[in-house]
Amino acid sequence: MKIPIKFLNMMGSFAPQLFDGTCGEPIGWGYKILEYLGDENRHEIQKYGILHCCYPNWYLITKKISREEAEKTYGKITNEEFGPRGGWRSATFGDKTFSSKFLE
Question: Which residues are within 8 A (CB) of 54 and not within 5 positions of it... i.e. 6 or more apart?
Answer without folding.
Answer: 17, 18
